[in-house]
Amino acid sequence: MNALLFTLVVVSQTADVRNTRHNLSAPMVANTVRAQSETQVCVFCHIPHAASQSRAIWNRDLGYQAGGTIYTLYGSSTLEAPPNRPSGASRLCLSCHDGALAIGSLLNLDATRPATVAMQGGVTTMPVGPRNLGTDLRNDHPISLPIPASDPEIVAPPNGDAVELKHGTTAVKDQVQCTSCHDPHLATTKFLVKSNLRGAVCITCHAKQGWVGSRHEASLAAYPASGAQTVGDLGCLACHKPHNGQGPTKLLTTQNLSGAPLPWSEENVCFSCHRSGGTGVDASRGRAAPDIQTESTKAVSHPFALKTDEHQPVFTAKVPEPETVVNTSKHVECADCHNPHQVQALPGNVHEGMKGISLSGAVVVDNASTDVQQYEVCFRCHGDSFATMIPPAATRPPSGSNKRLEFQTTNDAFHPVAGPGRNTSTYLNNVLDTPDGQLRGLDWQGNRLTRFSTVLCTDCHNSEATANVPGSARNSSASPKGPHGSANTRMLRANYSTATGANAPPFGGYNQNNFALCFLCHDEARLRGNRSNFFQPGGVGSGRGNLHQVHLVDRTNAGCHECHNNVHSNVAATNTDYRNLPAGTPTHLVNFAPTVRRFPASKGNDPWYGDSPVRPRWGRTPAGDYYCFAGCHDKDEAMDGNKSVYRPPNP
Amino acid sequence: MNALLALVSALALSQQPTLAMAKRSAAPSRIDASPHNFFGPMGRPPSEGTDLCMMCHVPNRLEWPKRGPGWDSKNAGRSAALDVRADPSGPPLAMRWAGSTMRCLSCHDGTVSSINIVLRASSGTLKTDAIASTDSQRSGRNGPALFSPQSWTDEVMGNHPVSVPYPLDGTGSEYKGFGPRAVPIDTLEWVTDPRVKGLKLVSDTSGFDVLRGTSGVECISCHDPHGTTNTFFLRLPKERSELCLGCHRK
Prior knowledge:
The complex is a heterodimer of chains A (651) and B (250). Chain A is mostly loops and 651 residues long. Chain A has a domain at 415-494. Chain A contains 14 helices and twelve strands. In chain A, strands 3-5-4 form a three-stranded antiparallel sheet. A three-stranded mixed sheet of chain A has the order 10-11-12, with no helix packed on it. A two-stranded antiparallel sheet of chain A has the order 1-2. In chain A, a hairpin with a 5-residue loop joins strand 11 and strand 12. Chain A is elongated and about 110 Å long. By secondary structure, chain B is an alpha+beta fold. Chain B has two domains: 35-41 and 48-160, no CATH class; 164-246, no CATH class. Chain B is built from six helices and five strands. In chain B, the strands form two sheets. In chain B, strands 3-5-4 form a three-stranded antiparallel sheet. A two-stranded antiparallel sheet of chain B has the order 1-2. In chain B, a hairpin with a 6-residue loop joins strand 1 and strand 2 (92-94). The longest helix of chain B has 14 residues, at 2-15. Chains A and B meet through loops of A and loops of B.
């Protein structure tokens, strides 16, 4: 019994306010901020008589805070309700932590009113540092605000939880105050009311959908790489800093490193881990956090670094789509494609919890029942639904801008991103499918590429490291994957030259490297040689039996893009006259590059229709045979020779 | 057992500055040296007609000492519990003080300062309290008055609550009609029994036994008006906040 009592006494002594930084009395030599001689502990905050008018019988004159107008309040586009001027117990905390009032300035000290306690080292107000929040509270978690009823990701703490809502100015305990998370008497880390391991304090209120089980929450990687804590154990604090946060509104930080922190920018929050050696190896994954920072430094990358402090959170339910940005602010941040609270690692959904734009232009939300498709995330910027649409470059034709229209499955021809290709004829079977066809490798879901397959944007636009396998980039062992950056132009997974000039570099001769991208899926050997789907009737073997071979290698060194200028789709073709190809007719992704010229009117009219089209023509004869009527085939216009019209009669 | 109790009583009595002892013995008692000796430190009444205790205690118990017109113990509805409020913005809960706290406030409520005590108007040798040397101090505004006669709701704040329950033995208490036991008490916040260290709890019932469930805090829980070896009549030293931590586990 005595032993038990003794134990209890010891516990109570080690756990009380006298063993904390809030013991400002002189004997507490462990504290830098302490009095020169005063031995009272409670008196720095409380006094039983002549205190300020507060429930806590506060021994500090809060008059300087009158009205709270000295404070600049936290604000964010995602706030359901703006915080009020500091109220309740928060005012008491701020009376030291805003750095405005000397720590030793008391209303009443041993009946001397007012009084000032002399502090060690000449300290007066809170020394500059992380504990001095200043009167600008924009970089601190908001206080004196009620829990919004309308935000599903914010909930009131459950009854009995150590985290509690506190009084504001009414009889109801309905507000987040400093004391919701901190108990100033508690001998705990940062006076927290409970351990914040794995973000336990934060997620009491912040019920982030999908957080538990997300890649970040589940990570076993040490951060920093040499540290003892895992990313998952750090929880929210891996990216967020509830006080003195960086960035305009989201209390983010790049500073949770043991070494020199990265400079502030949104992407550097992610790069703190997602860089070379950013974390230790996650044993459950067999690797460290994928190094995206290096990707961002490649020849072409998504322009993460273009802007800082202009971005709004894009994955919250609160912010409506589209995000309102002006053209001059167009830029991209990691959070435009990934929701860090829900993200999964491949082969999981890296876009878990994101919103996207569907083929029809509607906002689609990733939730438990619906996975947002990758292309839907791309359409956020590379479609026409948002003001964020990437405009066509001045040096580029207007094609290639609106991917949402280009990948409509009703288009005449398109790469099968939003759905399988429309031409799934048995003829195409022979051309594309195995065992005869030209398609190589597996699709993104691990099945053989066929004419019924779909492809991902990232099957073409990806890190060059993913070109180590045929078929979908998803099947590459390279890490990181994804359209973060590439050594190739247009962030392509492999080289694809759109240079022109048959005899100019790189086209001094046929070079398969010029079209390495295409050949990842379209077997070069099948495209060349004795047979492809592009041939002249009756032609057998190389030569007229395979006009791909003729154009690419034998007669000219044309580039793929000269006839397939926009490989996304034909819908935006501006330099092609499709004759007798009514809507719905497969057009084999034939659309001429701007450099391909019309058949000169002076050399005669179209032999089937008798007209003189102003653009190079790709059409069908009245009998249904495909033909070209373009400048290439006029001897004066360029390319080869003397024939005016080719008629590859496809079935 | 009875013998033991008697012994304890005798010891206790021997330490109490009783009226008889004050008169009989020249040995200083605690009250002799305390500010509650209104005849000055170690002072003595000038005549047999007055004595130390009469300033507060009336031998025949007929009535409380009469104070200035500002104090009306029969109209205690005007008074308010110190800093006990139902909510932060509302008025202090109007409570009827009783017992010892009312005796303290009969001087310390600011309506009467020590110089204005009218008891024994003939006792011209009452010590003139320095803190009441100006008009404003006399009215209690700047003196050690607990609340202002000008505004009962303004300055009643800023004092530690009294006439409030104390969760003796970690048990929720009801005291003076306040603090129903249904209100959950975080017993970890409170010392199990402050009396062990020398603080005083008061019973809500007529008896003198302080029982869990009916125990409360009054002025005399922290102050002993008869004087202590500590400043401000404190029952425990303020140094190292021993007094505060005698009840509060923080």
